[in-house]
Structure formats: C-alpha cells, structure tokens
Amino acid sequence: MAIELTAEQKAERTKLRQEVKTVFDELNALRFDAQRPNDVLVEDYIKLKYNMEFDSYLYKMGINPNQDTVAMILNQAEVDQIRWIVPEIFRAALRKGYRGAPIYPNIIRGEEQMSGPVMKVPYINMSDAAPRKVNEAETIPLGAVSFGQKEYTMFKIGRGISLTDEIKMYSSLNLVSIFLEDFGVLLGHVVDGLAIECAINGEQKDGSEAAPVIGVKTVGTVAYRDLLKILVRMSRLGRTPSTLIGGEEMAIDVLDLPEFSQRESGTTRANLNIKTPIPQNLDFFIHGGVDEDQILMLDKSAGLLKLNGFPLKVESERIVSNQTEAFYASLQVGFAKLWRDSVIILDKTKDFAGNGFPAAFDINSKQIVELKN
C-alpha cells in the first residue's frame, strides 16, 4: 500500500529530484578538480548539503533500493535528472569492495596527490656526506651531496560492465550493488598488483630501484636463520622490516618453521638483549604477485608511496544495439619506491654465498671505514 505524501513532502521530493544533476555536478567538480582532486563520498556530501543520511535522501526522492530496479528509475518522468543517482549508488558499492579487500593500505608509507600523469621529484643522495674524524684545529672536510630527479608515473585502470534489460527490469538496486562490490574487489586486486610490482622492480625504467634478491644457506629450504640475516641487516640500515609478502606455499613454509609453530615454556640460563631493533612481530600477506620461491621483506615506513590521480569514476551509457546499460569504472593510480633498501627479496632457489647483499647494503664500511682519517 502506497503511503500518501503530505504537500510538504511532495514539495521536498520535487525539489530534491530537480537538484539531482546539479548536486552530482558539484560533487564531481570536487572529485576531478584539476589542481586538487578529492575522493569525496556521496554519503558525506549529501550529509553536508542536506543534513541527512544517504538512505534518507533516496527515500525522500521516492527511491527504495530494496525494491526499485534500475529500469524503474531510468523510466521515470524525471529521467534526465534522477538517472544521475544510479552511477552514484553503483560507485558506492564499487568503492566498498575496492576499499575492503586490498592489502596495499597495509604496506605503504602514505599517499600523494599527483598533479599530472607524470611527475618529476627530487632526491638527495647522502652516501658521500658521512661525517669524518676531525683532529684539533683541523679543517672539517667537505662531503658531496648529489642531487637528482626521479620520474613517477601513474596509470589509468578501469573496466566496463553491461547490464542487460532483464537485469535492469527484475533486479533491485541493492541486489545489483551487492554483485558490484565484487567488481570493486577485483579493482582492488589490480591496485595491489601494481604495488607489488613496484616493490619488486621499482618504478624506474632502468631497474635502478629493483629490490635485491638474497639467497639462502641451504638451497631449496627457508630457515629462520635466513630470515634473520635480512632482518638484522635491514635493522642495522635503519629499516624495520616487519612486513612479509609471499605466495601460499611460502606462507605455509614460514608458518611451519619451529620458531613460529612451536611454543615453549621456561626461561633461558642467560638473557641476551639485542639492542639493534629486530621486529618481534611480523605481518605476512599472501599475494600471487610474488614468485612462489620468494619472500618479499618490506619496511612500510620507508618503502612504497601510493600516487593518486583522479579518484574512482563511474560513468554510464545506453547501448541500443544490444539493449544494455553499460557502466564504466576507472581510476588513476601508481606507486613509487622511496628507498631501495626498504625492500629485500629472499629466494630459496639461490645460494647466499653467490647471492648475498649488494655493495650498497654494506653497513660495516659505513660504521668503520668512514670514521678513519
């Protein structure tokens, strides 16, 4: 039974429907501002503009997502106005899936808004500016600080999906939205893949930022000692490698190590307190982008930076030839590596004797040799 609206409610509904396109034009102007794009949520904008929740906003316009189909909205008299609400409902569903599944938020230092698809950023190399021992009345030696530029690049990723007339006519908005959440999950997997790719190979075309690959003591087997070699070295370099990323089999191998799988009681006869901080708690993320024989060991505080271009965009069009409504989701994103020594890869197929730490990771020379006259 339909609920009879009061004159005041009818007036409010008419007003809200007339303002739909204007509202979402304003919203998209914020999202795709040329200087500073902002991923504004429709829920937040409606709350700010009308002081009401998004569900109430839909209800007051006469839209019930649990019952109304896409076709019911698109076929109404005010179609030129309220049709703009459909991409927003779908965007909210896509974003929910996209934000809920990815691992990248847990392995990055932060996010940076880009002003264009390519940006040059400065970097300073302090390797030749280490302090030296200075005798009384002796001139303090000058060190060299090299300055250069790195180029960061973003990519546009997206995909279109089409809704047949049958889906539009018989499936409610909420039901379609539930399935679109899974599309958002797939979108998140792609962004995760870009993050892992950057961690492994870096963002520079010449491969200069690629992570070094370190071998193990006994080829074919990962021992706790192999992990400790990297944990200790990275800690001495000032990194905190508390994040591990690998495939399913490697995750099982690590979890099966006695140091992680067996519990012991009692105390040792003597206590040894390691003052070089080595992480006691490690986070292991399982991802198919890492070779099955490798573990990626990462310090998230100095590792990856997520680059943002324009936020998630959802657009639609009617394809008359096959009687479908097509929706296209896209966003602009990229990743950059801050410091090369923030990521090291352990490979159980390589021998440590022939695949040890590269010269740039030689902390001993920095701690001893450079203090000499």
User: Quaternary status of these chains?
Assistant: single chain
Task: Write the element-wise H/E pattern from the N-terminal end onward.
Answer: HHHHHHHEEEEHHEHEHHEEEEEEH
Structural class: alpha/beta
Uncertain stretches: none
Describe the overall structure:
The protein is 35% helix and 24% strand. The chain is of the alpha/beta class and 373 residues long. Strands 1, 4, 9, 10 and 11 form a five-stranded mixed β-sheet that branches. A five-stranded mixed β-sheet has the order 5-12-8-6-7. A hairpin with a 4-residue loop joins strand 10 (313-319) and strand 11 (324-337). Helix 7 (85-100) packs across helix 9 (173-201). The longest helix has 29 residues, at 173-201. It is elongated and about 90 Å long. It starts with 6 loop residues before the first helix and ends in a 6-residue tail after the last helix.
Indicate the topology.
Blueprint: H1 7-18, H2 20-31, H3 42-50, H4 54-60, H5 70-74, H6 79-82, H7 85-100, E1 108-113, E2 118-128, E3 144-153, E4 155-164, H8 165-170, H9 173-201, E5 213-216, H10 224-236, E6 243-246, H11 248-255, H12 258-261, E7 283-286, E8 294-298, E9 304-308, E10 313-319, E11 324-337, E12 343-351, H13 363-367
